[in-house]
Amino acid sequence: MADHWTVDVLVQGYPGKSPEQGGLGWSTIGLARGPGGRIALLDTGRVGVRKLLLERLHQAGVAPGEVTDVLITHLHYDHCENWPMFPAATIHAPGAELDFALGLPDGSPMWPEFTLKALAASPRLHRLSEGPTGLPGIACFEAPGHSPHHLVFVLDGAPPVIFSSDVAKNRAELATGRADISIDPAVHAASIARLLSEWRARPGAMLLVGHDLPMRLDAQGRPQPMGAQRNRIEAWLGDTLEEVTRFPLS
Predict the structure, then answer these.
(1) What is the pTM of this model?
(2) Does domain 6-248 have CATH number 3.60.15.10?
(3) H/E element, 114
């Protein structure tokens, strides 16, 4: 049985928006296997990804009921809506952020109030703050800016894995130290700087961001994507269902 964590990307994130639909909410979802046979989901995505998520779990040989833990970086809709899919899992989520979100009026952008109210009432909720998570080989630190109490998960492995989600959503934000969705740009910039420092302190570590490919640092210390984008859009723009227009998004 594994004594460290291995992580695979179940669903690729994508760094895009639409002028008519706003943020796409296409977020990275990770599958982690660790000590004691634990199986963890790293973020859960939005409701629209449920069918695909089930398919990818099946391909990985994992049933939803076998997931022991769900780790949620922050409570925006595209990262937390699917926690109810995993009936046996402990749901590890930032406690201070949940309190903040529950204090907002219903209908606030980014915050799925019904999902969060159900999470707050769940006996499976484990409220997290910076430090140990209670899971062997996984710690977290707070990196605010995109959201008030965003967490970053650090998993012991060979290589180590840092699941940073939307602290820096894509390679451009990592490279510039700036983010396009921020509640406090100065605080956010400091969080990106801390993320980069933690990454560089772990040679060979893989970084999983919220809306891009996994990354490693090259010899010059620059973020480099691993693999290729699979995302595309299929559209029905003609007069028959057989006429499918495919738009690659790489």
Answers:
(1) 0.96
(2) yes
(3) helix 113-121
